[in-house]
Amino acid sequence: MTKTPFRTLLALSTAVLALSGCSSLQDGMGAMKDGMGAMKHRMMGDGSSATATLDATKGNTAKGTVTFKQHGKHVMVHARISGLKPFGEHGFHVHEKGDCSSGDGMGTGGHFNPTAKPHGPQDGDHHAGDLPALKADASGSADVRFHLEGVTLGDGGPTDLSGKGLIVHVGPDDYKTQPTGNSGARIACGVIEPTKPAAAAKSGQHVH
Ligand SMILES: [Cu+2]
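Above: the input record for the complex with copper (II) ion. Below: its predicted structure, written as tokens.
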């Protein structure tokens, strides 16, 4: 009876030692992971940017400029588009090919979908190229900012948006119909062209 508490204490302290050893190992792993994360962000092209100039497809009026900037894990997007239907909602996607030469936007192919996900809204499973729909004001313009997760800019990896097509559709995206969202014809088309590589952005050097 007198020996049991001691043995219990011994067992407990061994367990505590094992636990503390484990947790400091986890801290170490965590710190290493953070370091790797920071390194990965640099490699992922943090600070790199790109611009797409959207031109109206045949018979349409929508046009504008969309800028992209990698910021940590996110790609920040600023879209300024005019010539939309007043108060209209328009499907808006990154498509897989940067080719607007056909004049109807069809040369851009389907939605950019490197991770083989279904088409959907930002808060659910979605194509890497699925974007929030554009909502036009009374004058048919939209000026919106949003950020994307799960895509990169300028790293040359599978989810890199650089060089891809950008499409505005005539109608709203239902975020359900596979694989397109059923937003109809392509009324504006552009190519996401890199404007600033990550290295130049990081070093602060001017590129002439
Ligand atoms: Cu589309």
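Notes for the reader.
The beta strands are 49-56, 63-71, 74-82, 89-90, 92-95, 134-135, 142-149, 165-169, 186-196.
Residues 1-43 form one domain.
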